[in-house]
Every structure is written in C-alpha cells, then in structure tokens.
Amino acid sequence: MKxxxxxxxxxxxxxxxxxxxxxxxxxxxxxxxxxxxEAGTSxxxxxxxxxxxxxxxxxLILELGRPFQAWRVFMNPKAILTxxxxxxxxxxxxxxxxxxxxxxxxxxxxxxxxRKLCAVICIITGLxxxxxxxxxxxxxxxxxxxNGPGMMVLFLLSSLVTGGAxxxxxxxxxxxxxxxxxxxxxxxxxxxxxxxxxxWLVYLWVKISxxxxxxxxxxxxxxxxxxxxxxxxxxxxxxxxxxxxxxxFEQRGLxxxxxxxxxxxxxxxxxxxxxxxxxDRTWLPGELDYRSRLPLGDxxxxxxxxxx
Amino acid sequence: MARYxxxxxxxxxxxxxxxxxxxxVHNELPIDMIYNPVTTVGPKGVFPHVRMMHIxxxxxHCDNPPCVDACPTGASQQRPDxxxxxxxxxxxxxxxCVMACPYGARVSNKETGTVQKCDFCMERVEDGxxxxxxxxxxxxxxxxxxxxxxxxxxxxxxxxxxxxxxLAELGTEPQVYYIYSWEV
Lengths: 308, 184
Fold this sequence. Notes:
The structure holds two protein chains of two kinds. Chain A is mainly α. Chain A is about 70% helix and about 0% strand. Helices cover about 20% and strands about 25% of the residues of chain B. Chain B has a four-stranded mixed beta sheet with strand order 8-1-10-9. Chain B has a two-stranded antiparallel ribbon with strand order 2-3. In chain B, strands 4-5 form a two-stranded antiparallel ribbon.
C-alpha cells in the first residue's frame, strides 16, 4: 500500500556508501602500513579514502533541508550524527595527511614514525566512520528492519569489502601485479564477501523468524517483496557471489571486474537499507490506513495549490 | 514545576477532525502538513456488536524523547515542564528526529527546510490558555493539564480511569494517555 511517509532521501544512502568505503580505505591502508613489510597501497588509493569521505559529506550536506546551516550538526555531542560529523572531519584531515607521506615533495614524507602514528589515527577514525551508519540506524527502535546491533555488523562488513575493492582497483590501475602487504587483499576481500553473504542470510532469517511481526513483515520485502530482485540479483549474486569467485583467480582484469561489482553491490545494499527504514515503521493503530489516504505530493491539486 | 500531559478520552471522540483543522489553522501549516491526525480503527464485529474507535495522534511529549537525543544541532529540546519543541533557527532539516520519533509526529516543511511538530501551543500554555486542539474539541475528548497537580483533571483521570500509552514498551515514557473502552 502506497502511503505518505517522511524519511531520508537517496543522498543519505550515497553518503553512507562513500563515507563507509572511504573510512574502510583509511582503516585498510593503516593496518597494511603497520604490518611488517611494505604496505603496498597506491597513492591513488590513499588519496581516494579521505576524498570519498569528503564526497559522502557533500551528499550529506545536500540532503539537509538547510544546507548552508550544515555547520550546526557539530553542536550536540550527545547525538550520534554529531559524533559521526566530527569523526568524518578528523578522518578526512588525517587521511589526507597520511596520503601526503606518499609524495616526496613534502619534507615529512621520510618520517616513518610520524607516518605510523598517522596510520594508527586513520585506523581509529576510519573504523568509526565505517561503522557509525550501522550504529545510527540500529538505534532506531521504531524502524523494525534497522533495529538491533546486526545493522552495525552489516555496515562494517560492507564498508570493509567496498574499501578493499576500491584499494585493489586503485592499485591495479597502475600496475599489473600487486606487491607488499596489499597482495593478500584479494583473498581477504573474498573471505569477507563470503562472511557478508552468510551474515545477511542469518540477519534476514532472524528478522523473519525470531522477533516481532513488524520485523518479519519488513524482512519479507527483501525475499519476496519490492526489494527482492535488486537484493538477490544485484547485491547477493552480482555484488557478492560473482566477485567472491573472481577474486580467487588473482588476475588483474578479473580482480578489477570483481572490485567494480563489489562497489555496485555495496551501493545497491545501502540504498535498499535506507529505503527499508523509510517504508517500515512501527505503525500506530489505524495509522497506515490513514496515511494511505493522504496525497503523496505529486497530485495535480497539490501542484496547483502550491503554484497559486 | 508543572509536567504537562494530555489525556484523550477515545470513548468521547467522534472522529470529526476539528482538532486537526484547529491545529492547522492556528499554526498556519502548509496544505501537506498535519501535526495531529485522527485515525480510525474499525468498524469491527457483526451487528449489533459493532465497534469503532477514533484515535487522535500527536507528539507524545515523551519524558525520554528519542528525537531530542538524535538531533545533532540541539534544535530539538525539552523544557522543564516536559514540552518538546523545535527551535526553528537551529534546525537544519536533517530529519534525524523524524526517523527517531516512533510516533511519526514530526513533519518537514519544504518551504523552510526545517522540521516542525506539535508543541502543545506552548505560547498559549504560558499565558494560561489551553492548546487549540483542546479548546476546539466540542466532545471534551481532549483534557490538558499538569500531571504534577493532584487537583488537575489529567491527574485524576490518569489515576482513576483505565488508560494506556502508545508504544510504551519502547521506553519513551509518552505523556499522552488514552482512555479506551475496548482493546485495539
């Protein structure tokens, strides 16, 4: 039943996608740098991390009703959105500083200790940026599909696989074979994809079978409803299973195709999750019926009224 | 300090939507914004045992309002007397409160880019007047008052009549009480 309902727009889903991917890119770059041996991440990959978070922040600002007042979101330290905004700002700053160590023109590019310190900060801020959308959504008590800690795991996993795929894509743009710690990223991303596949199945199964009727109704949209086709074929098949197989070949071309598919899958998943929370709320008695009778906003009489 | 609350006697409500209209007129809301809808459950049953109930909805002015915690700008606030309101100068229209509110009580104003909601007509309340929806209800189905005042009608009704609070299981401590004659 179509109904009039307030909710977040598609730009928030795009923010979740870019910010999560960028945060995970910082996290991965930092971890690979701290491991023994050369990190092997590309300069492009290291720059893209904070760049993607910035891009996500731009979409977040555009989503606001008053974009020019965006600075106000830093004002309430109790709100998780404020914590996210501050962490994104720190991640962008330290991400670009970390990337600058790859450019010889900067005098600090040879200071290994400082770079390692920066890598640690990137790991912490990147982890928070990659995880916080899941925490934000999971705290919504009246959004049956989001509610619970599972959303945090799903978002962290999706951020890690898309961040890993973006690093692989960046590295393979300039070389035919990977060297250093990043050489093991193919297998790591493949295993994370397999884990992501399993976690999604378990998440849906728990929502359908083990909790409230409202959660079951929301979860069934993903298997039989309007989300079923993009979820099954776009996210699970094309965005998870196919790249999982392709990544095991460890060939440049196949890995790049796999990475692109992972990014598309992650994008689809973010959009579906945000839409799911918008559609399914814990309805009050008679409310859904009432709202289904309200105009959706594009009716002729409304346009005429608003233009009078 | 007062603790304002609203009691809705659903046995008296006839679903005339006067409260909805009064609210929209007083607050000069755009055509697609409603603070206090009235929903209808039923009719259920078979004649002569047919039942129907009208349920006026509005902001529940919760004691533990998730919308206030979710607001990143501090625009959503709760006064010491319990009234939850939105400072329009601080609101950036991020809709975090819209998503956090379990009661669907917050609406975006496309013209201003901000989020708005029922504030119990707090300017009127400060002047000792009743909210417009309460004043308008000709069936006296809406009873507004101070829950901390033992002589108030709301205190007496909440403590003597069988009443429920919507989605109380979420821990939001809503301060709108519904007196009912049958389970929804």
